[in-house]
Amino acid sequence: MEYFQKKGSNKVWFHFLDDMLKYSIQDSNGKATFSIEYGSIPVDDFFEIEEKTAWYRNLGVVWIALGTFFTVARFMDEGRLQISIWIYIGLICLGLYKFSRVSFTAIDVDKGRIFVVKDGKHDEILREIDKRRKTQWVDLYGKFNYENEPEVELRKFKFLYENEAITEHEFNDAVKRIYDFHGMNQSGQDTPTVN
Asked: Is residue 136 part of a domain?
């Protein structure tokens, strides 16, 4: 499954592989690509970034300065005030700068930063990452290892439940299996045996 987003000079690709996300971003500064396992993408470490295209602002300032020069020169030469067209073009560029913002959800990962453009695909991409992260966590931590201490196993399933990777019913079943295997009651004490 693949998603492509484009906004302004920003191009973003999400290639959802079976066990990892291949991510690429390209903007006016260059291109970056990396792959990361879904389970390594943090759950709550998201923040919002807003970017404006500085090119419009810089061009607007140049055209306004140039237009001002021509307006003053004409006034000095002809004695009449006639606003240069370059001032209007500069104002249009500044208006484009004001409204040319791109908003992202940014996720810091160990290999860099994932940017998801806030467009019609934004929520769908985040849902897909979340779904695949949970599936990968269940694949990694959702199997019973009876050689582990019961506390270790309980922590694994509690982690999965708190992050909504398993249901309450699945969590309760896992707790029951752990207690039953280790001969413990619900308070965590050993179940008394009859001699």
From this structure: no
